[in-house]
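Record pair follows.
FIRST:
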Amino acid sequence: MFERFTTSARDVVRGAVKYADDNGGGTGGGTVGEAELLLALLDRTGTPAADVLTALGAAGRRAAIERDLAAVRRRGGISAEDAKALAGLGIDVEEVVARVEGAHGAGALAGPAVPPRRRGRPLRRPFTREAKSVLERSLRMSVGRGDKHIGDEHLLLALTARPGLAAHVLADHGVTYIQVEQALATHRAKAG
């Protein structure tokens, strides 16, 4: 599958691995997940995905998106929307997180913060099930669109196509699958 990735898409994957190596750029965990893929996409410039993220205003809100990713991770994967829904049932997610952290330490729900090591060197960063699903979905989207390659735009589409950490955070910032599709169509019309 990776032989079909464009240079830009490969750079996104490499960037995601780097975020995991750096302990997720604030997202923690030491694994490559949706958050790391999204942060690596936000690093891109001059690519279809970068142009779409800029057009939709997400590129200018990178710091806020990064904070929101870290907050969702701190809450054990519960999105802001889910927290609001639980609040409607009388469950204060922030109170639950505070109690868990009080008993087990800061970031207790975020998962392991220290990446595994072997003889002083970090192991190859594992991809989460969700990140693998994004990569597989990007292939299906590329094929479905009749493209012969997998570009960073396919990774962005795959991140927003199904509910997940990245899709929820992007939606909180006004970036949805439909908007990405429309912006890509506009981008292709201008480029073609």
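SECOND:
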Amino acid sequence: MVSSPRLFWLLLAFLLAVLRPSAAAHDYGDALRKSIIFFEGQRSGKLPHDQRLTWRRDSGLHDGAADGVDLTGGYYDAGDNVKFGFPMAFTTTLMAWSVIDFGKSMGPQHLAEALKAVRWATDYLLKATAVPCVVYVQVGDAFRDHSCWERPEDMDTPRTVYKVDRDHPGSEIAGETAAALAAASIAFRSADPAYSARLLDRAISVFEFADKHRGAYSSSLHDAVCPFYCDVSGYEDELLWGAAWLHKASRRRNYREYIRRNEVILHAGDSINEFGWENKHAGINVLISKEVLMGKDDYLESFRINADNFICSLLPGISDHPQIQYSPGGLLFKAGGSNMQHVTALSFLLLAYSNYLSHAGGRVACGGASASPVALKRVAKRQVDYILGDNPLGMSYMVGYGARWPRRIHHRGSSLPSVKVHPGRIGCKAGTAYYLSPSPNPNVLVGAVVGGPTNTSDAFPDARPAFQQSEPTTYINAPLLGLLAFFSAHPDPNSWSQD
């Protein structure tokens, strides 16, 4: 029941936004396949025989050797050649969450490929946490790397290794790494029980280190990790995030009690509507809310209330004090660079929460109004469709999907001639000519989703130097796996449960 004319018009505006028809039906299954292939283009280490992006070759084969450790493998986070552990761990957590909640919608082949993508990361994270009370958090001198434009196969900048330990703590990255290992242990529980158990055991020990030796890696390793992946929101959210995933993976009461004791941390700032590699608050609320909605833990009711408030802040025309804007073309927008990281992560939470509400027969309470699970799904689908081409430019922001997509992405390996075409080494500064060239990238990084429009005008410059718009990242794609899986299995809104 709408209680006032104002609420009626707000709800009408919201429905018009989410019911806007798509320009054309999308092949979400094809987009899912390509979004998984993207991760193969980000691989470091010795590539497997079934590598599908064949313009890539082995790289970083001696990572960690100078320090007496094996740190080969893992992912490059974006268009550079550094292995940043913080975003890699977050990417892993979100890929695993996609598999946990939406793996059944992927189909056997896509599920197997998604698990391969997760395992490429977790195999590396196991190496990075093999020494007790130590987490190796970065390979590569970011400043030196960013001064070059060279292929990962050619890189000759220092592969400096950075770590956190008892004397140099890093609770945010250790907490996120524990979350990634715990989430992945759930994802592999059926496919590989022994591997799943190994991941969970490691997650427990890494979390114990994160909690016992508290401190910020952004302080311990400030000169190496800032301003690239500097955590300005504090490490407390990663500790709760790690505990939440460990509770979900192990069902141990001590993690539930840890969450209860530390719940006040969620109220320490004004940013609980944030979710991304740097801030986990909204994700914590949504993840824990499932327990509440299923009637398993009324003690954590405050997390569900926080989740409702967060979800309401995303719904067009609902909130009196919205912290999210939408562009004229319908794209969710937050200030800062690489806007698609917000679009995919927040849309994933919308979809996950809508499913939790559906199973519990609930709705989102937004003051005097409310929204159904179906309404949440429509908002999430609108964002996915915008990414795939339903936008004012008619451009897909996923490379290789649709008729028109970004051709000059900010990505070294994609923009430089492949080793197969140009076997000779291309030096640090020799790549500058390719960086500045107006020509399209010679190698297609299939499935990469770029940063996209970073203002409310829906404009996009298809240019390498515009890195905030044209650079892809692993943490843009990770939550997209779950979104595309769901919509590939349920493309017709009429098939969703009714309001």
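COMMENT: Residues 40 and 61 are 16 Å apart (CA to CA).
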